[in-house]
Amino acid sequence: MANDASAAVSEPRSVPSEPNPTRSAKGQPVTAQPAQSPAKQVKRRRVPRWEVVQTLLGRFEDPRYLEVGVSKGTTFHQISAASKVAVDPVFKFDWETERRRRSADTEYYQVTSDVYFGAIVDDDQQFDVIFLDGLHTFEQTLRDFTNALTHLAPRGVIVIDDVNPPTYHASLPDPSRYQRLRKHVKDDRRAWMGDVYKLVWFIDTFYQSMSYATVADNHGQAVVWRERRTSVVDRSTTEIGDLSFESFVLGADVLQRRPFAEIVADMSPHIGTVAS
Q1: Of 18, 153, 177, 206, which has the maximum CB count within 10 A?
Q2: Are 93 and 185 in the same domain?
Q3: Structural domain boundaries enclosing 146
């Protein structure tokens, strides 16, 4: 991230006899059609990272965008906004050339997020959409989230990447252990997410003034906005810090996974400056 380094079986009952389903009303043979699998029936288009961010930015006039953890710039450079700020300790592209070729409204800071929030960003600077995709550890992402809230516009949105690890090894906060286990089980996917998922549990318990949901039609991005919730689940900070992958899987309903379009519809009264 910004630092280096989710029935009982009833008894059969008799029913009135029905016409032979293999014959039409006129008595002609009917070819049986194979039932579609549920996966084919409900297949949903995958929503990429940049589209989630861009859709949210589209709810603001002259949107201001901050991305923490830019890496190769894959998402950042696809985003259109009135002003954009990129923060990463080691950009994996020629950021100085990019800075020269882009407008003055696009800024690059090759520093850790702690340095950016602590010494660079103006005290009164606000952003409409903040995307957190940096170091994949709970502690660092929590720190980034807390700092981001200070600079979030009143009707702004925070997007937290990688909160739904697909495997145990993808949930490990140590990238070297993740790589060793991934190779051991011969997993070709490069899906290191660390234990960022714990931040969702933390928000659920300790940020009652914020509402959230996780995008179900992609790899797992949590979308967080200001809307008070009537209740929270009582957990200790120690319990959340120790949350295992097993507990994550068994309690994945905490993620509140929903289709992105549904999330946008529900949050619309609470975000943006452009009427829906």
Answers
A1: 153
A2: no
A3: 52-161
